[in-house]
Write a structure and sequence with these properties.
Largest sheet: 8 strands, mixed
Number of helices: 6
CATH superfamily: Gcn5-related N-acetyltransferase (GNAT)
Helix content: 25-40%
Number of strands: 8
Radius of gyration: 16 Å
Number of domains: 1
Structural class: alpha+beta
Strand order of the largest sheet: 6-7-5-4-3-2-1-8
Order of helices and strands: EHHHEEEHEHEEHE
CATH class: Alpha Beta
Shape: globular
CATH architecture: 3-Layer(aba) Sandwich
């Protein structure tokens, strides 16, 4: 079985053309509908967002690149708190990037965060209705830690947000079993994360 080579690189290290392709992904309907901010991102907003990342020590945005270095998605580390050794994270992929890539990214990036960022607690938020992502996170040992009802407004309606969390201890205790259980699908991808 041939592996698909996937590389994650910090968005600040990419050329402007690749950075702008990330805007196209951010503006895909299947991505926007699960974001807190779901309007179409203008070119200037996108450039401002990238510029703001250079000033933030508590946030890192990695672009998911295929073998041809074409952006396929984004994985972000947010609210990195070195004092309390915790962070939030999120990711999204273009509609064309399917076939198990989400699972492989989740597994490898969780491992990377606990090993390379020195955190002990990883948190994420999922908008109500995005049951597939809640299920995916739980598959990779996240526990639902709460549900904040009527927390945001989407399309003029108040909807809730799921809060999920994973400790480093739970990850270390369970990742070998995950590797055994999902090793076949995880092996479809060779994921390299460049931490610069």
């Amino acid at each position: 079985m041939s592996q698909k080579s996937i590389t994650l690189k910090n968005i600040l290290t990419l050329d402007e053309d690749k950075q702008m392709l990330v805007r196209d992904i951010r503006n895909e309907e299947n991505v926007r509908k699960w974001m807190y901010t779901d309007h179409e991102v203008t070119q200037q907003e996108h450039l401002n967002w990238i510029a703001s990342l250079a000033k933030k020590s508590n946030q890192a945005v990695f672009v998911v690149l295929d073998e041809q270095e074409t952006p396929m998605g984004v994985v972000s580390v947010n609210d990195l708190d070195k004092n309390h050794k915790k962070s939030d994270w999120a990711y999204y992929l273009t509609q064309a990037a399917r076939g198990g890539l989400g699972s492989a990214l989740e597994f490898h990036f969780i491992n990377f965060l606990f090993d390379e960022f020195g955190i002990e607690k990883l948190n994420c938020e999922v908008i109500e209705g995005n049951d597939a992502v809640v299920k995916l996170h739980k598959k990779f040992l996240f526990l639902e830690e709460g549900f904040r009802r009527s927390n945001i407004i989407k399309n003029g309606e108040r909807i809730g947000v799921h809060f999920l969390g994973l400790t480093k201890e739970d990850w270390e205790n369970g990742k070998d079993e995950l590797t055994e259980k999902y090793g076949g699908s995880l092996a479809k991808f060779d994921i390299n994360i460049v931490n610069i």
